Structure formats: structure tokens, C-alpha cells
């Protein structure tokens, strides 16, 4: 199954993609995460991308298309994947169609998560993530179960994103409207667009996504070796 998660910054794409991976074994492919990791490792491309990201602008189509093209060849994508934050422009959507056709696969659904702008700003301003595994939390809406310990990996270090500042957030919302919203009619005309009311608690959003995708019973593929805790290695 191949799914796109579409929605403005703060809509809950990353949160739902992480959950879909955990609960259903669909691999999360986040271009934002991949670009941040390239920036952190200090590659040329990564450092140039970081400058653009910190301003709240989009990284060039060529770069993100190349990143995704590489990701799609990975073994971990064989059970299906979720494109989180890609495509973000009409040109990227065209490039994705070409890539999928070349691989003999196609999109199953595009999930649009709809959230009012004032709520987006509140979500982004309280967002933080585990520095080790990237799990996303919120100061008010989603704290780790144990104080300062990541639910997923036990990590104790957390980070906030450089582009979650108010001025960059305003710019990202503007860019979403101008460059990404035009994708909605593109997918609606193909009959694969699903709209989800994202202005609800996370578990309700999750249940609605699963119901509309018809994957309530889709379980992740079993590991060969029982249920050894996945956090050890
Ligand atoms: P958010 O979670 O707020 O939607 P992301 O983590 O997906 O943000 O993306 C952060 C930044 O990374 C974007 O503002 C943009 O600069 C860059 N980026 C991520 N995905 C893309 C893409 N598909 N095309 C261009 N730039 C991208
Ligand atoms: P995106 O990837 O679309 O930018 P995130 O998944 O990172 O959005 O969510 C933005 C922030 O809002 C995070 O801090 C997250 O914990 C929180 N959040 C996500 N979904 C919800 C929800 N349904 N209700 C309240 N807070 C949410
Ligand atoms: Zn973690």
C-alpha cells in the first residue's frame, strides 16, 4: 500500500505516519526528516537545504525527488510506505507518478489532514521530538508517558526544530497554500483523495484514517524471532 499524507505544517502528518509504521508496518518516508538528517551530517546538499528550510521555503524539486527516488529502492519499503511531506509541488507530483509507473506500482490513496490555522500554530509552537528516534511530542497535547523519557526508545534528549519559530511558521503556511494546495484538485480528479478532520484528538484522527483506508486489521509483518523488545539494538 502506498499512501501520501498531505496537510499544512503541524497538521499531524508525522504523528500519523509514525503510528502507521508502528501499527501497520508501512514505512514512513519523511522528506523533512531526511533533509534534517542530511543537514546534521553536514553534507553539501544538507547544509544548503538547511538554509532554505530555516527560512520556511521549499528545497528544490530536484533534490527532494532524488532523495525519494533513492528511498523507494530500499527493502524496508516492500510492504508499502507512507510519503510524509512529499510531494509538495505539482512538479514533484509529476515526478512521483513517473517513478511509480517505472516501478510498476501506483498510489492507493492521498490523505489530506485538515486543521484550522490557529490550531496549527498552537501545535507547532509546542512541538518537540526525541533526539534519538525522532518520535514527536507536544508540550500540552502529547507528553511522554514517563517524564523526559521517550516512549519509543527510552531516549532522554529532546530537540525543537529551528524552523518552528513564528516567522518561519508563517512563511511555511504561505508556501503550503501557494505550492502544495494545488495538489488537492490533482488527486481529487483521480478519485483517490480522502479528507480527514484533523482537529480532533490523535487517536480519533488515527481511527478515522484507518477506517477510510480500510486497514483497521492490517498488522505489521511478523519478525522471525518472537517478540524480542525492538529497542535493544
Ligand atoms: P512539517 O512537518 O512542518 O510539514 P517537514 O518536516 O515535512 O515540515 O518539512 C520541513 C521543511 O523541509 C520544509 O519546510 C521544506 O523546507 C523542506 N521540505 C520537506 N519536504 C519537502 C519537499 N517535498 N519539497 C521541498 N521541500 C521540502
Ligand atoms: P506535521 O508532521 O504535519 O508537521 P506533527 O505530526 O509533527 O505535524 O504534529 C505537530 C504537533 O502537534 C506535534 O507536537 C504533535 O505532537 C501534535 N499533534 C499531532 N496531532 C495532534 C492532534 N490530533 N491533536 C493535538 N496535537 C497533535
Ligand atoms: Zn525516542
Kindly describe this structure.
The protein is built from 9 helices and 8 strands. It is of the alpha/beta class and 233 residues long. The chain has a domain at 2-115 and 165-213: Rossmann fold, CATH 3.40.50.300. Strands 2-3-1-4-8 form a 5-stranded parallel beta sheet. Strands 6-5-7 form a 3-stranded antiparallel beta sheet.
Describe the structure concisely.
The protein is α/β, with parallel strands linked by helices and 233 residues long.
Query: Percentage of helical residues?
Result: 40-55%
Indicate the low-confidence ranges by residue numbers: 225-233
Percent of sequence in beta strands? 5-15%
Strand order of the largest sheet: 2-3-1-4-8
- Estimated structural class: alpha/beta
Secondary-structure element order, N to C? EHEHHHEHEHEEEHHEH
CATH topological fold name of the domain at 2-115 and 165-213: Rossmann fold
Round the Cα radius of gyration to an integer and report it.
17 Å
Bound molecules: adenosine-5'-diphosphate, zinc ion
Output the number of helix runs. 9
Main sheet characteristics: 5 strands, parallel
Shape estimate: globular
Can you identify the CATH class of the domain at 2-115 and 165-213? Alpha Beta
- Look at the structure and give the mean pLDDT: 93
What is the CATH superfamily classification of the domain at 2-115 and 165-213? P-loop containing nucleotide triphosphate hydrolases
